[in-house]
Amino acid sequence: MEFLQSKQMTLDGSYQFSLGLFENSQLQGVMLYEDALWESKMLQKKVMNVKLLAANSTGQLKQLFQALYSVRQMDETDFVFVRVPAEDIGAVHVIQQQPSSYFVGSLLKLVNTPSPYEKTPPFFELVQPEPGDTEEICQLASDAFAKSRYFHDPFLSREAANKIFQEWTRNNLSGRADINIAAKYNGEMIGYLQGLSKGDEYVLDLMAVKPGYEGKRVAFHLLAHLIEQPETLKHKTVTAGTQLHNVRAIRLYERMGFTAVQSYYNYHIWPGKKAK
């Protein structure tokens, strides 16, 4: 699309729906979005994700969101997820002005070039999970991701947010993830990591450590084990993401050679709700 090329923007993946803003037969703004089918099923709500948005001015971007509101209210959409680069102050301001728009956290993307680490052996085992480990691993996901956007939404319960990550973990164990690593100590599950291969990039998808074992290098050894896998070393980069206020995670990644490359702000927009 020429409009996106003119703004040096590319779309990662596909989309279902689009909104375009035209003035004098010229495209001035565009929004691409899709149904979030899995989230909708998990939350028992109609959820949509904005994949890309761009406009020539903040006023035109505001018109796009007004159109989105009208369409989604008629369609009885519960909420729309929007992620924007933190440096795009104009877009952030427009989204924050929308009725029933909620800031639900942030994302910091970090990258590293895979290479082996010097380290002492851990006090625990790093193993591939067995089928009988599934429920114990999924239980670790409960409250492990409390800094995520689902926990910051005033219209989503803690139970619903936990369900998202427990089922996300279960799907990864059932074959979605390219690698699953479990940390076990005396037969007890104390941590897990799940990763995905995406072209030249290996993505750390989910990682959790059992309460009481934080600060004991469990996360370090899980991540090092992932990075040192022969399959991972074939990739150009390893990518991780965490919230901007998750200082402990950011320090770990930086100590392991990761570099921050982009930060984002996350918003949930509820077209049919009155602002709390």
* CATH third-tier fold name of the largest domain: Aminopeptidase
Mean pLDDT: 93
When the domains are counted, the total is 2
Q: Span between N and C termini?
A: 38 Å
**Fourth-tier CATH superfamily name of the largest domain:** Gcn5-related N-acetyltransferase (GNAT)
Query: What is the percentage of strand-forming residues?
Result: 25-35%
Q: Mind describing the biggest β-sheet?
A: 11 strands, mixed
Q: Which sequence of strands runs across the widest sheet?
A: 1-2-3-4-11-5-10-9-8-7-6
**Can you count the helices?**
9
- Give the helix/strand class: alpha+beta
- Count all strands and give the number: 11
Our Rg estimate from Cα atoms comes to 20 Å
User: Which architecture of the largest domain would the CATH scheme give at its second level?
Assistant: 3-Layer(aba) Sandwich
Helix content, binned percent: 25-40%
Which residues sit in consecutive blocks of at least 5 with pLDDT less than 50?
none
Organism: Bacillus mojavensis
Domain N-acetyltransferase: 124-276
Protein name: Spore coat polysaccharide biosynthesis protein SpsD, TDP-glycosamine N-acetyltransferase
